[in-house]
C-alpha cells in the first residue's frame, strides 16, 4: 500500500494526517511510529530519496536520514 500527501502550497505545510473510513475517524496517521524494514520514499524539489527504517528509529531519525 502507498499513500501520498500534498500540501495546498508551500506556505501551508502538512501538519497532521487523519484517516477516516466511511466518514468515521479511525486514527491520526502522522503519529504512528515507523516500523523496522518499512521503506520510505520521499521526493523533494524533484529529487527522490529512499530510506529503510532500522530498529528503534523514530520519526525524527527517519526524517533526518
Q: What this model shows, in words?
A:
By secondary structure, this protein is mainly beta. Helix content is 9%, strand content 32%. It is built from one helix and four strands. The protein has one helix at 59-64, and strands spanning 18-21, 24-28, 39-44, 47-52. The strands form two sheets. It has a two-stranded antiparallel ribbon with strand order 1-2. A two-stranded antiparallel sheet has the order 3-4. The protein is globular, with a radius of gyration of 13 Å. The model has no long low-confidence stretch (mean pLDDT 83).
Largest sheet composition: 2 strands, antiparallel
Shape: globular
The tally of strands reads 4
Helix content: under 10%
Number of helical runs? 1
Low-confidence stretches: none
Structural class: mainly beta
What's the end-to-end separation, in Å? 22 Å
Task: Please describe the structure with a list of short key phrases separated by commas or semicolons.
two-stranded antiparallel ribbon; two-stranded antiparallel sheet; mainly beta; 65 residues; globular; single chain
Short description:
This protein has 65 residues and is mainly β. Helices cover 9% and strands 32% of the residues.
